[in-house]
Amino acid sequence: MKHRANDRAVAGIDVGGTFTDAVLLRGHTLFTCKLPSTPHDPGIAVGEALRRLGGADLLVHGTTVATNALLQGKLGRAAFITTRGFRDVLAIGRQNRSSVDLYALEPAQRQTLIPAELRFEVAERLEPDGSVEQPLTAHEVVRVVEQVKASGVQAAAVCLLHSYANPVHERALGDALEQAGIAAVLSSALAPEFREYERSLVTAANAGLLPILRGYISRLQERAAPARVVLMHSAGGWLPAQIAALEPVKLALSGPAGGIAGVRAALAAEGLSDGLAFDVGGTSTDVARVHPQAGLRSVTEIAGLPLRTPSLDIHTIGAGGGSIAWLDAGGALHVGPQSAGAEPGPACYGWGGRRPTLTDALLVLGRIPRDLKLGGEMGLYADKASAALRSLDIGTPRQAAEAVLRVALAGVERALRRVMFERHGITGLPLVPFGGAGGLLVCDLAELVGSDTALVPREPGLLCALGMLHTPATRDLSRTLLLRDDDKALPEATGVADELEKRATQELRECGLPGPFRCHATLDVRYVGQSFELSVPLGSNWKAQFAKEHEAQFGFKRVHEPVEIVNVRVQVVAKQHPLRIPLAAAAWGAPKPAGTSGKASVYDRAALSVGAKLKGPAIVTELSSCLYLKAGWHMTVTKSGQLLLTMNKSPERKRRAKARKKRK
Amino acid sequence: MNAAELSILHHALVGAAEEMGEALKRAAFSPNIKERQDYSCALFDAKGRLLAQAAHLPVHLGSMPASVDAVLRARKLKPGECAIVNDPYDGGTHLPDLTVVAPVFAAGALIGYTANRAHHADIGGASPGSMAPQADLMAEGIVIPPSVLRTSAGLPTDTWKFILANTRTPHERDGDLKAQLSACDRGATRMVEVRSRVGRALFGRQCKSLLAHSRVLMRESLKRFRPGVYEADDFVDDDGAGTRDIPIRVTLTVSRENLVFDFSGSAPQVRGGVNAVLAVTQSAAFYAVLCLCNPRPPINAGCFECIEVVAPQGCVVNARRPAPVAGGNVETSQRIVDVCLAALAQAVPGVVPANSQGTMNNLTIGGAWPDGRPFTYYETIAGGCGGGPNRAGAGATHSHMTNTLNTPVEALEHAYPLRVEEYSLREGSGGAGEHAGGEGVVRRVRALYRAQFALLAERRRRGPAGFAGGTAGAPGLDRMIRANGDEEALEPKCQGELRPGDAIELQTPGGGGWG
Fold it and tell me: What are the DSSP calls for A567-613, one per residue?
């Protein structure tokens, strides 16, 4: 069967801290490639991977260049222009100290991104409804642009009070700056939403990232030519290079976005749309709720900076496979946040690490088979893992390992519960591990959060890159309205949504995307006086939807309470033909174990055929990852080649059975 | 109890308290709770001992347990019931802080309590916002002794109606109280889940181990404290009712076993509203000690067993009814921290930074829109943190007992008929030193219509002291700028009227310098 979209060669390349993962779909064949990353210029490995795969027509790329620049505070020099009286908005922030500093004797100084000498004020003022209280004079524009020019910066962030309601003053400044050869980032164009600190910050971050990402993207375009380069953005779609280079702050979560896209595709292949994704890495674990509606949050925190840009709701905690287990002075066991890192690594690597890590515990418990070769090459030292765990002095190595595993799980569970919060009392969502180590914990985590299914995608280690193949171009735009609910509210919001849709569509067209496009428009709504908004689809029943949603989340609604529309959001999606990713050569016959590890039989994933069934305890290994199927669980290889895990007896059923027994 | 169970239970209970906070924040109505996050959430065992508290506001540390205690003494709550309290002399701190307490039952047995406290923007009394200087407690607002707020059938009681009838913004209060109940219910659900996972028989025992664990870590930290007797004192500027330079003295006795903070020698309670109740004083002392703990123990009742706070009845840090207390929680508490840290600095040399701004700069503006709708705006304003042995003090940052966020100017101007004209760093206000103190803040707010304001601020006479040779930060400065341009200096604790076009400007203190 021929599939139209497969005519083009599409590559997905994800750059991680250690490896650069690349996949390429040409015709009906999937090619993969894994190379060491080149941190000094990540584009080198990307270009090399693409070359080895034979080049592509389209390269979808997930990058951590923006993330790392923000984390390390290495941004380009930029100026900041704001309304008179507010030059320190970046330095004041929300005036609080970070919650980790609540009991710190010396709380940390806030990161300002732009130093005081590059922060400028202009005389002008808008009212909250956007009307002009004090006009911005031409003279004032000239004055400040000259000052900015004299400071020698190449980019300037402009964020004036209430500019979300009326961009006229920002545009005047923007035009003058551009004429003076200074790249202008206008808050009213980038993130026209109210709350001046957050809007200023995202505008300033964008200005600081401009020179860095512009250079990176243009070098990458040269290396990847003739492939067209597009970049994954934080909201989970991709952006054409032209737009990404202008709005680099939207790439802040470019890396993990591919993973979520991969999880979404994995769920879709089984006819599912809602799940809990998690990625257990070496030093940290990411968790996210994957859900067709919304699922985006408007603020994402990087390096303690609340960046107001639509992002996937990914929550990160400081515990992963390499996290070190330790006892505090009161005898409580902790896992992380300190990590053995890549050097010396877990004790079982045999590279000199002596302190026990989660990976050592998993090995001692037999979840990782002792004869497993990491990446097909590196052997593991079970005796070193045992010795490290014994040093904790909380029982036999096995008992200690059990304890380490349970503490690590409790931390991930807490994070999962945070992302589950969106819906009051949701249970039963399938868990989807991505990245290498998630499969070792998936059954336990499902049990802990009250779920009885899990789905393990194919090639979990390459899922980020694979996800990119499935990702459409999306353009997310929004604007604050703060409209009280009356007869005019909906028509006005609809008008703005149409305008945003038109702009988004046009921008994507200008980048050479022919369409067709789909548009989702949503409203952020709240009761008047509240300051947390809920998203509902734009439509005539928006108020009823809001009441329903409010009750679902908070357990109550207020029927006669006035509501207000805070923001309008549109997401324009370029329609894409679903890609068919071919199965690896199918295996035949009933599954045959390749060995045993403790009580569990060990299977090679490549040898499992579609429809094959396994009962826990069992282990399924493949090159990039490992799955531990707990006792009490069983597993089926689905038609799409994924592993569907199901608990034999769900807790719900158990409870009912118990209750029945009691009655007797 | 083994090493893993301790951590697992801690994760589960703190996670539950965090979920409560999230539920409260999202469902609440007033900007004070949602934008500024002026609230705390906690879980207690069946005896009312603190099990876990989410990392919210330190000022609620010792005072949340007092609320639960008062409710427990007053009545036995049935399943589904919820109680409320704000009486500073019976479980509360100051009147705007409404604490809701709900029992948690599993299979008919009481297993614990969930509680949350939120600062409401108005709780009646003589002035909008209930934070203005007053002559007695009754003028500050309505006093709610421990009372049932929701029946076991889930219906609001007369207390609820009574509260709404006595506030200027009943609508907002109604929404906020509903959010507080919803948060309690969320915490209760999670607590029942945690218990059923641990096992009915084990849960109680494990909770006890959790407290014991914090006790052990606390004792471990105490080993770094040099035994001895240390003294420190400082002053509250004034009470707004004629008493100036109100001394607060502490004598800290450090032994191997415990810490005793004795406030004998502090001033008698005063006429103006800067009196603190004992729960506030305890919170301040607990906070100061926690700052010096390394490793920091998980916060629960076990942490505080080795800290004793002694204060004579009827003094400014242990006031008697009906002394007014609005500023005790927000202002005097900061001074109590200053003296506690100054005493602790002698027991643990070389780690304590210079004084931070030592005030919360409480500003309340209330009035009505032209169409008659009432509004009450309340907020606390950051200042400079003290420079320390390791780094310069953070500027424009809330310190010690509070950590509330500001109201964004764009949110404020949308919600209230007010305009912010300036919000900037107060240049040159930080004390000098090898590590300078952080800068204070300038915030100027103009009223569009006639309104009343109240100011409650400290460190207007003496700036926050420097340490180790650093100089003091600049004291705060407040003024009124009339519509016609006339300026008037304002007393640090005052109230008055704003006519259309009048502005009020606060310049908050800078932190002290270090070295």
Answer: EEEEEEEE--PPP-PPPPSPP-SS---SEEETTEEEEEGGGPPTT-E
Quote the radius of gyration of chain B (alpha carbons, Å): 22
> In chain B, which residues have their Cβ closer than 8 Å to the Cβ of A403?
2-4
At B306 the pLDDT is 94
Selected for mutation to probe chain B from A82, A83, A92 (highest B CB count within 10 Å) is: A92
Buried b (16+ CB within 10 A) or exposed e, B106-127: beeebbbbbbbbbbbbbbbbbb
Which stretches of chain B score pLDDT less than 70? 1
DSSP string, B449-479: S-EEEEEE---SSSPPPPBTTPPPPPPPEEE
pLDDT single digits (tens) B35-60: 777 899 999 999 999 999 987 788 88
ipTM: 0.92
Residues of A in contact with B172 (CB under 8 A): 529
Contacts (Cβ under 8 Å, ≥6 apart) of B56: B21, B37, B39, B40, B41, B403
Contact yes or no for B441 and A96 at CB 8 A: no
| Distance of alpha carbon B81 from alpha carbon A232, whole angstroms | 50
Which parts of A39-103 fold into alpha helices (H)? 43-52, 65-71, 89-92
Sheet of A314-317: strand order equals: A314-317, A285-290, A275-280, A431-434, A453-456, A643-647, A633-637, A613-615
Find the helix or strand (DSSP H, E) in which A22 lies: strand A19-26
Q: Is the pLDDT of residue A91 over 90?
A: yes
CA distance A320 to A285: 6
Q: How far is it, in rounded angstroms, from Cα A252 to Cα A273?
A: 25
Q: Mention every residue, 6+ apart, whose C-beta is less than 8 A from residue B468.
A: B354, B389, B433, B514, B515
Helix (H) or strand (E) holding A637: strand A633-637
Do A531 and B35 count as a contact with CB atoms less than 8 A apart? yes
Subunit contact A106:B8, Cβ cutoff 8 A: no
Give the pLDDT confidence score for residue A5 in this predicted structure: 47
Which residues pair with residue A570 across a beta bridge?
Answer: A477, A521
- Who has greater pLDDT, A295 or A167? A167
C-alpha dist (Å) from residue A298 to A160, A280, A311, A508: 20, 25, 6, 22
Specify the DSSP element, H or E, that contains B195. helix B170-198
The total of other beta-carbon atoms located within 10 Å of residue A292's CB is 11
The reply to whether omega before B65 is within 30° of 0 (cis) is no
Cβ contact, residue pair A327, B3, below 8 Å: yes
B229 beta partners: B253
d(CA A621, CA A143): 66
A190 sits in the region (left: phi over 0; alpha: psi -120 to 50; else beta) called: alpha
Nearest to B2 among A110, A394, A558 (CB): A394
Query: Which tokens belong to B177?
Result: 């109280």
Give residue A257's Cα distance to chain centre. Answer: 4
**Contact call for residues B83 and B146 (beta carbons, < 8 A):** yes
Phi and psi at B420, nearest 5°, equal -90, 125
Nearest Cα residue in chain B from A110: B394
* Sign of the Cα pseudo-torsion (B448, B454, B459, B462, in order): positive
Write the CA distances from B452 to B49, B368, B489, B492, integer angstroms: 41, 10, 17, 16
**A323 in Cβ contact with A341 (< 8 Å):** no
Tokens of B377: 């705006």
Under 8 Å between Cβ of A156 and A207: yes
Chain-centre distance of CA A548, in angstroms? 28
What number of other Cβ atoms are within 10 A of residue A402's Cβ? Answer: 19
| Interatomic CA distance for residues A168 and A180, integer angstroms | 19
pLDDT band at A422 (very low <50, low <70, confident <90, very high): low
Task: In whole angstroms, give the CA distance from residue B23 to residue B445.
Answer: 31
Contact A515, A505 (CB under 8 A): yes
